[in-house]
Amino acid sequence: MILFNIILLIHFAAFLVYVCKLVNLLARPGAPKDKQGLVLGIIILVTGFILVGMKYPAINYYKVVPKLGLFLAVTVINVMNGNKPESRKQLFWLLGLTVAAALIAVVKVA
Q1: DSSP character for 58?
Q2: Where do the H-state alpha helices sit in the chain?
Q3: How far apart are CA 69 and CA 71, in angstroms?
Q4: Residue 110: what pLDDT?
């Protein structure tokens, strides 16, 4: 159980740093891209897959599938731009999709 909690903390920390990075980019429009977002995205995905693997077969598919879809949308938005800086509209979309994924993760469904 301690391993699960450690991986969950890493997942949460990477998620929080990614959200802070998006907010920082909103404050500085036209800022160049760096590889930190890519590394954070990989950490989020890998730790997410590990967490799902550790809980299998008792997985909340109604949470995992929409979150995976939202992360796929975030990936598509990032890939579409290449190395160009994101526009404010794209940053708002990225931030909105990321916050939506976070809300899916923390909302308790009876």
Answers
A1: S
A2: 2-27, 36-55, 61-81, 88-106
A3: 5
A4: 60
| Phi, then psi, of 71 in degrees rounded to 5 | -70, -30
Q: Other CB atoms closer than 10 Å to residue 36's CB: what's the count?
A: 11
Nearest in space to 7 (alpha carbons), one of 50, 58, 52: 50
Residue with tokens 């008792």: 58
Neighbours of 109 (CB within 10 A): 7
For Cα atoms 95, 98, 99, give the angle at the middle one, nearest 5 degrees: 85
Per-block mean pLDDT, blocks of 10 residues, the chain (110 long): 91 92 85 81 88 82 86 86 82 91 81
Task: Please state, in angstroms and as integers, the Cα–Cα distance from residue 11 to each residue in 33, 68, 84, following that order.
Answer: 22, 14, 27
